[in-house]
Specification:
The protein is of the alpha/beta class. The protein has seven helices and six strands, in the order ββαααβαβαβαβα. It starts with a strand and ends with a helix.
Length: 208
C-alpha cells in the first residue's frame, strides 16, 4: 500500500497518508491509458469543418462550351472539382467524432494514470486548501511552497470557487473537482495536487 507525505499550504509536512493499492498502486496499463487519451481528444473535436461540393458552389449553371469540335476536353460545368473555384471532391463535412469506451476500461485507465503519478513521485497530497478570498497571490505562494510551479493540476472534492478563480490567471495551472477527473488531464500535468478529501472521494468511487 503506497504511503505518501501530507503537506499544508505552506509546504510543511504535517503527516502521512496511506493510499489505496487498487487505485494508486497498480501496474500502469499503457495501452489502456493511450486508448483513454485518444478517446478524450476525439470527444473534444467539434467536427464543424465543412467544404462545398460542386452542387453547393455558385455559378456553373451552363455548359462552358459545346461537347465536340472545340479541341478542348469535354466539360459540363465550370464548378467541377478540376476547375479553379470549383467544388471540393470528397472534402470534409460536419460529423460527430465522439465514441465511448467500456466503463471498466475507463476505470482501469484512470487507476493506471494515478498509479503512474505515484510511481513517478509526481503526486502531492495537501491536507486542505483554504482560499478565504479570491487572490492569485495565494495560489502562487502555495504552488511555490509545494514546488509545483510548472504544469500543475489541482483537484478538490467539489468545486472550490475561490480556488478556481484565483488559479485562472496562473499559467499552466488547471483546477478540477474529482467528479471531472480524466486520464488526459492527469497524464498531461507534471504535478498532481490532491486534497485529502479528494483522495478519499476518488478511492470511494474507484477502489472497488
Amino acid at each position: 500500500m503506497p504511503t505518501v507525505s501530507v503537506f499544508d499550504m505552506t509546504g510543511k509536512e504535517v503527516g502521512t497518508m496511506e493510499l489505496s493499492e487498487n487505485v494508486f498502486g497498480i501496474e500502469p496499463n499503457v495501452p489502456v491509458m493511450h486508448a483513454a487519451v485518444v478517446n478524450y481528444l476525439a470527444n473534444q473535436r467539434q467536427g464543424t469543418q465543412s467544404t462545398l461540393t460542386r452542387a453547393e458552389v455558385s455559378g456553373g449553371g451552363r455548359k462552358p462550351w459545346k461537347q465536340k469540335g472545340t479541341g478542348h476536353a469535354r466539360q459540363g460545368s465550370i464548378r467541377a472539382p478540376q476547375w479553379t473555384h470549383g467544388g471540393i471532391a470528397l472534402g470534409p463535412k460536419p460529423r460527430d467524432y465522439r465514441y465511448t469506451l467500456n466503463k471498466k476500461v475507463k476505470q482501469l485507465a484512470l487507476r493506471s494514470a494515478l498509479s503512474s503519478k505515484v510511481a513517478d513521485q509526481e503526486i502531492i497530497i495537501v491536507d486542505d486548501i483554504q482560499i478565504p478570498e479570491i487572490k492569485t497571490k495565494t495560489v502562487v505562494g502555495m504552488l511555490k511552497a509545494l514546488k509545483a510551479e510548472k504544469k500543475t493540476l489541482i483537484m478538490t472534492d467539489g468545486v472550490n470557487k475561490n480556488l478556481v478563480i484565483s488559479a485562472n490567471n496562473v499559467p499552466n495551472v488547471k483546477t478540477a473537482p474529482t467528479n471531472n477527473i480524466n486520464v488526459y488531464d492527469v497524464l498531461n500535468c507534471e504535478k498532481l495536487i490532491l486534497t485529502k478529501s479528494a483522495v478519499q472521494k476518488i478511492e470511494e468511487v474507484y477502489a472497488q
